[in-house]
Amino acid sequence: MRTTGVWVKRGVAVLLLAGLAAASMMPGAIAAPSVAKKKTLAAGVTYEQINDASIPIRMYVLKLDPKTPATLDLVLSGSQIGTFAKTSTMAANAGALGAVNGDLNDWPGRPTHQYVQDGVPVQTGQRAGTSVGFRRNEHGATIGHLPMRITATDTAAKTAVKVASWNTNAPTTDQVVGYSWYGGRYAHPSSNECTARLGVPAAMRWEPHHDGTGRTYTVEAVSCGSPLSVTNSSKVVLASKLVGAGATWIKSLKSGTMVHVGWSNGSIGGEDVVSGSALILRGGAVQYAPNCSTSLCQRAPRTAVGVTSTGRIILLVVDGRSSSSVGLTLYQLGKQMQALGAVDAANLDGGGSATMWIKGLGVVNHPTDSTGERPVSNAIVIRRGKDAGEPKPLKPLA
Fold first, then answer.
1. How far apart are alpha carbons 384 and 392 in whole angstroms?
2. CA 130, CA 77: separation in Å to the nearest integer?
3. Residue 325 gets which letter from DSSP?
4. Measured between alpha carbons, how far is 346 from 304 in angstroms, rounded to an integer?
5. Is the peptide bond preceding residue 367 cis, with omega within 30 degrees of 0?
6. Exposed, middle or buried by CB within 10 Å (0-12, 13-18, 19+), for 219?
7. Among 4, 149, 363, 394, whose CB has the most other CB atoms within 10 angstroms?
8. DSSP state of 232
């Protein structure tokens, strides 16, 4: 298993290390790559364009070493769910050094899967997907099939309920769901629900296993039939049907009492979670076979994210659907991430959404839409310096 970088520059010649040399002999792997461009964006942050005319293929790689002056962050296309923007626009607005598109997109402008930004859950999402939980200390990520769990606990009565979804679905019988400012006008309580509005949140804390965060809120009001709304970014609303187990719990809440709402998903030390459609590399092993024939497996433009054993983050974009770059299958994508040194990796949104933007160079790949770069709902960015908007959670509640 190879877990180190794969490129070394000596004078004006670029030589391949053994990782890619060995990978070139594997079925479906990159055969004879060469570095067409290379640029250091900041200490520990590098960009490369890699070509292989024998396939043919063009690939674009961003690398972030752990514990550097740069940080990785997630950005949405707007302040709330319901908009689309180009990756380049989101990157420029964030003052980024580089960026790639993130999760797949659902109408009316939201990621498809679970999504957490700066420790705050944006949504649970419509499908499970493969989550990527970036660690707050910038030392790698947790990648895998890791469903999000959200719990609300009445701290006085010591009663807890599972929050079935967040800014995603209306409650069904016996369920409690959650809404926050991120839901905007597209995810909010309706008139046939019991609701409890929570405000005045305490400081963010790690959940018991440090694989998610939570806050303790004060119950402001409880109402059934006349839904309470989320009035600002510091409040959340829990909702249920008018009857059932969820309604019984909501009705038991009293104004002024405290409710702790916490999420976790197994991402140790993670405060930013984005998701993709497929786990392509796990523990150094490619997860898709060369003969995979589903539509997801076929050659296409790709965006992928991976992590090495030393905590380096690798972001990869692959051009496709043209005579000069035909795209990669999921098997080939796994092989390429393996050759670049990743031990775990996920396939993000691809096709016409696949985009990499580099400061000073602009969009470096070739998006396939006839109108050019496609607007999307979210992106992964690399910033210079620390992320000022990311809180440092306190220790878990006793």
1. 19
2. 21
3. B
4. 6
5. no
6. buried
7. 363
8. S
Task: Retrieve residue 10's tokens.
Answer: 């000596």
Tokens, residue 196: 């409890």
Rounded Cα distance, 215 and 199, in Å: 10
Neighbours of 302 (CB within 10 A): 26
Q: Tell me the two tokens of residue 228.
A: 């309470």
Site of tokens 């060469």: 34
Residue 277 burial (CB count, 10 A): 19
DSSP-based three-state secondary structure for 337: helix
Rounded distance, CA 303 to CA 86, Å? 15
- The verdict on whether omega for the bond into residue 66 sits within 30 degrees of 0, i.e. cis, is no
Cα torsion 383, 385, 387, 388 to 10°: value is -130
Q: Which residue has the tokens 């960009």?
A: 47
Neighbours of 88 (CB within 10 A): 18
Tokens of 207: 């959940």
For the entire predicted model, the pTM comes to: 0.92
Encoded amino acid at 48, one letter: E
Which amino acid, one-letter code, is at 71?
Answer: T
Residue in 265, 217, 215 with CA at minimum distance from that of residue 396: 215
DSSP percent split of the chain into helix, strand, coil, nearest 5: 10, 45, 45
CA distance 373 to 363: 8
Write the CB contacts of 68 (distance below 8 Å, at least 6 apart in sequence). 42, 43, 44, 45, 138
The domain spans of the chain are 63-143+270-384, 149-264
Nearest CA-CA partner of 343 in 110, 141, 72, 154: 141
Backbone angles phi, psi at 80, to 5 degrees: -140, 170
Q: Residue 365 corresponds to which amino acid?
A: N
Task: Compute the residue count for the chain.
Answer: 398
**Phi and psi for 264 in degrees, rounded to 5?**
-155, 155
pLDDT means over runs of 10, the chain (398 residues): 31 34 46 89 97 95 94 97 98 97 96 97 95 94 97 97 98 97 96 96 97 98 96 97 98 97 97 97 98 95 98 98 97 97 98 98 98 98 90 92
> How confident is the model at residue 25, as a pLDDT?
38
C-alpha 230 chain-centroid distance: 25
